[in-house]
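Appendix B. Raw example, untouched.
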Amino acid sequence: MRIGAPRVDRARLDLYARWHAARQSRRGWSPSPLGAEEYWLQFAYPHEAVREVTLWDGGSLVAVSLCDVTPRAWSAIYFFYDPRVARLSPGIANVMLCLALARQRGIPHVYLGYRVLGCPSMRYKATFRPHELLLGRPGPEEEPRWVAGASEGSDFVNSL
């Protein structure tokens, strides 16, 4: 594992391409080729809070986790990995790693980002507690309403 500023290089571009191609095949995602400039704009644009956690198997890059790190929150922004390790549940391992890294640094909150109901790629987020579900789409002048711990398939979520 290495932690540092996000980088753009051939290993990251190739890993992202393999990961996205697997998603296209298995989940029907649209193609989304990224060159070095697009990758830099989406994942490596310099900011003082962003960190890249890379996981390696020997000299081979197997996963990239992009995170915002502040004194009070570790935010998991984006994660992609080598499809050959999918059977090892790398997404769950990434969440556990984010929790461990935040705990080591005394950061009290870990944020997994928004979850979109019905999106298979985000379903795993419901297994981590505590979490909240935003009700509806509040307008600019409305106060957002959140429900704690609702999960997909519950009577509450099905009624939305």
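End of appendix B.
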